[in-house]
Every structure is written in C-alpha cells, then in structure tokens.
Specification:
Oligomer: single chain
Strand content: 15-25%
CATH topology of the largest domain: Rossmann fold
Strand order of the largest sheet: 9-8-7-6-10-11-12
Shape: globular
Largest sheet: 7 strands, mixed
CATH architecture of the largest domain: 3-Layer(aba) Sandwich
Bound molecules: NADPH dihydro-nicotinamide-adenine-dinucleotide phosphate, (2Z)-2-iminopentanedioic acid
Distance between the termini: 23 Å
Structural class: alpha/beta
CATH class of the largest domain: Alpha Beta
Order of helices and strands: HHHHEEEHEHEHHEHEEHHEEHEHEHHHH
C-alpha cells in the first residue's frame, strides 16, 4: 500500500473528521519510510491498528442550571492505545469538542506519552459544554453528571484523566470528588489534583515550563538563549501562564498575549504583577484579554487580531488547534522570527508548518514541546502509588531532564542531511517506535 492509499482508506473510514485526518496525516507521512523498512511492523499491520482507537465511549450528560432548566451535553472518552500503559490524557470542556477533535487529541497523546519515557498509554475526553457565564454551582453539577457516567471506565491502572481546555483544578476537584463517592475509594485516578489531596507540586505550571525548557534546548543548538528575546504567546490560560512565567524568569520579554477577543501588545514585557493579573482575569471567568490594556495603560489592545503580526524572535501558540495559519506564519517570517514552539496541540496548520520548514527555522511540534504537562502527570501518578510527595525542586528537576531527553530523541531521529533538525519527524519516529514495538510484542489484541 502507498501512503496515499493508506490515507484514502483512513479518510473513507472516518468521514467528517478533519482534525483527526490532519493529525494522522502528519504522523504517518513522517514515519512512512521507517514503517516500510521494518517488516515486523508491516506484518503486524501496525499502522492500520494504531489509527483505530481501542474504544470510544459516548454518553449523555444531563444537568440543571440555576434557574431549573434542564440541559443535555455530550460526553466522550477516547481510550486510544494502551500498549505501553494505562490510558492517559486530559479532559476538554469547550463548545467545539466533538469526536474528531478528541480523536485527534487522543492520537497525538499516544506518541507524546511515549516520548516522556513514562509508562502511559494514550487517551482523551471531554464534552461540548460551554462554561462561559456559568456559575460555580452549575459547573459542579455538570462535572458531577459527567463523572456519574464516566467513572465506570476509569481506574488508576486503567484510565487516568487530567485537565485540558476548560478543565483546571476546580473541575478536576469536582470530578474526582464524584468518582471517589461512587467508587468508595481514594485512588490516584486523576492528575492535576489539589496539592492537599494528592496533586503534584508544579503540575499546574508544568506544561508551560516544559515548553520553555524545550525551546531553550532548541535555542542552544544555535548558540542562543532567551535573554533579551521578544516572545509572543497566544491564549491566557493555564499553559500560557506557565510559559509566561518561565520565559520571564529566563530573561525573555513576553510582549504579546491574546484571548478570543484580540491581542495585547506590551512593549515593556510581562512581569510578575502582570502575570498574576492574567491569572486573575482567567479565574474570574473572563474571556476578554482587553481588560489588561485598561489595567496597564502602556499596553495596546488589537481587537479581533492574532499576535502573530508582532515583531518577535520566538512565537509560542498556547490556545488551541489551527490557530496559526499560513498568513500568520508568513508574517512571523517577514518579521524575522526564528523559533516557533507549539505549546497547544496542533496549533499550526500544515500550510504554516510548510512555511517554517522552507525557512529552516527552529520549529517544535506540540507532542514533543508540550509533553511536560503529561510527564508531570506521570510523576504525580508515581507519587500517588508510592504514597509520597516530592518537593517542588525534585519535580522540576525531573521535568527538566525529561524535556532534555525528548529534545535529544527529536534530534536523534530528525536531523537532516543539511544539519537542520526536523523536530516533527524526530518526535513522530521516536514516539512511534516504542508503541509499535510494544504492540508487536503483545500479539494481535
Ligand atoms: P485553558 O482553558 O486554560 O486556556 C485556553 C486558552 O485558549 C484560553 O485563553 C481560551 O479562551 C483560548 N481558547 C480555547 N479555545 C479557543 C478557540 N477555539 N479559539 C480561540 N481561543 C481559544 O487551556 P490550557 O491552557 O490548559 O490549554 C491550552 C492548549 O494547551 C490546548 O491546546 C491544550 O490541549 C494544550 N495542552 C494543555 C495541557 C495542560 O496540561 N493543560 C498539556 C499539553 C497541552 P476561552 O476559554 O475564552 O475560549
Ligand atoms: O494535552 C495534554 O497533554 C494534556 N492536556 C495533559 C494530559 C495529562 O494527562 O496530563
């Protein structure tokens, strides 16, 4: 079978799932040669098996708002691949959630988790619930209803969810509480838990920290570092917050952040006070970044625009899939940007990535660069199993080492004849080899 024939088959079997097809294409394209060169993989038909989720659970989530109206959302959990460990991956609450989005995220998660070198399989879940404007009590009732069904399919050695877009410490708390009540046991079934009840130190900021550690490694390959670099971030959620903190700590200047309403240009750069204000904005359920410009008058707000038109050295998309397109990529290149690191999952469109490749810049895919989040989840699972908790420094050191290892694996498998590193190829091959080998070893299951 050729690559084109393989993709035609995947498309025919998964109609109306563009995000999923996009993610599969990106992975399979880059591992095709390695796959074909390995007769054991081909004989076991690993590629056709790996693109098919082991299980997709879809369920009704009924809940009542504060006025007594009944609403129905859809809950989904994709248990994608358990070859190297229990299913592991976040839960996303956002109106754009559907099977295609969760299958793309679950598929990416398989290779990301493999890259961490920790024993975690791939999964993802979520709901099309829109938390915007909802009260705390409504969010709690929704989380409880969601878990009243999902709990049957979870377990500390079976499937361990965590947060993602729209799911932070509060939602994890409500879901974990319901799980504990229904199962009548306290186990490490979620990660991203509160610090006083089994959560790991650093987990909230781990994704952003990991992204910046990874970027630092990429910059080092060109003899550079963050000092004095201008950086643009998108989103002002959990991941953007961790990234903003670490970039600032390493001497970089975050000059742009964004929200669904537009972006903020702050030529002075973020500092601790401004980063804390960014968190406050999010916690007040506010989806407007424009308030930042009211609070800090030297900052300018650009309504309805994306931050990729700002002149920066480093761009770190931290919001959502396909948020950076070919035009944005061209703007970044025209402005001399030399490094783009994906903090969100699949934030750059294939056309944007093609432009980055053409310019031979440093470009890292999300599955490598943002793996620090799930890696620290893996460390949380380990601490829960041992009934111990490590210090902030211990967790941070382990996270840092994992990010360096992932960078090394990408270089090992992605260095091209001209010396330039194709991190997409490197990450996909490194992540795939381990899972594919495990699937072969375990027979036809
Ligand atoms: P948050 O919910 O904390 O923040 C997400 C940010 O992106 C918000 O500013 C949100 O604004 C914005 N956003 C979400 N959807 C859209 C959309 N369709 N269009 C425009 N803006 C949007 O999520 P996280 O920070 O946790 O996640 C951000 C990204 O990082 C996601 O791609 C996630 O998959 C990825 N990631 C997260 C990890 C984690 O540990 N949390 C780990 C690895 C990757 P609003 O809410 O107003 O829509
Ligand atoms: O996309 C991701 O890697 C996450 N949302 C984190 C998953 C996890 O289980 O910590």
């Amino acid at each position: 079978m050729t690559f084109q024939e393989f993709m035609a088959k995947v498309e025919a079997r998964n109609p109306g799932e563009p995000e999923f097809i996009q993610a599969v294409k990106e992975v399979v394209e880059t591992i095709w040669d390695v796959y074909e060169a390995n007769p054991r993989f081909v004989k076991n038909n690993i590629l056709e098996r790996i693109v098919e989720p082991e299980r997709v659970i879809i369920f009704r989530v009924p809940w009542m708002d504060d006025q007594g109206n009944v609403h129905v959302n859809r809950g989904i959990r994709v248990q994608y691949n358990s070859a190297i460990g229990p299913y592991k991956g976040g839960i996303r609450f956002h109106p754009s959630v559907n099977v295609s989005v969760l299958k793309f995220l679950g598929f990416e998660q398989i290779f990301k988790n493999s890259l961490t070198s920790l024993p975690m399989g791939g999964g993802k879940g979520g709901s099309d619930f829109d938390a915007r404007g909802r009260s705390d009590a409504e969010i709690m009732r929704f989380c409880q209803s969601f878990m009243a069904e999902l709990y049957r399919y979870l377990g500390p050695d079976l499937d361990v969810p965590a947060g993602d877009i729209g799911v932070g410490a509060r939602e994890v708390g409500y879901m974990f509480g319901m799980y504990k009540k229904l199962r009548n046991e306290f186990t490490g079934v979620f990660t991203g838990k509160g610090r006083t009840w089994g959560g790991s130190l650093i987990r909230p900021e781990a994704t952003g920290f990991g992204v910046v550690y990874f970027t630092e490694e990429m910059l080092k390959t060109r003899g550079e570092n963050f000092k004095g670099k201008r950086v643009a971030l998108s989103g002002f959620g959990n991941v953007a917050w961790g990234a903003a903190q670490k970039v600032t700590e390493l001497g970089g200047k975050v000059v742009a952040i964004s929200g669904p309403d537009g972006y903020i240009l702050d030529e002075e750069g973020l500092n601790e006070e401004k980063i804390n204000y960014m968190v406050e904005l999010r916690q007040s359920n506010n989806d407007r970044v424009s308030d930042y410009a009211d609070k800090f008058p030297n900052a300018k707000f650009f309504a309805g625009k994306r931050p990729w038109e700002v002149k920066v050295d480093v761009a770190i998309p931290c919001a959502t899939q396909n948020e950076l397109n070919a035009q944005d990529a061209q703007n970044l290149m025209d402005n001399g940007c030399t490094c783009v690191c994906e903090a969100a999952n699949m934030p750059c469109t294939p056309e944007a990535i093609e432009i980055f490749f053409k310019h031979r810049i440093l470009f890292a895919p999300g599955k490598a660069a943002n793996a620090g989040g799930v890696a620290t989840s893996g460390l949380e699972m380990t601490q829960n199993s041992m009934r111990l908790s490590w210090t902030r420094e211990e967790v941070d050191e382990k996270l840092h080492a994992i990010m360096r290892n992932i960078h090394e694996a990408c270089r090992e498998h992605g260095t091209q004849a001209d010396g330039w590193v194709n991190y997409v190829k490197g990450a996909n091959i490194a992540g795939f080899m381990k899972v594919a080998t495990a699937m072969c070893d375990q027979g036809l299951v």
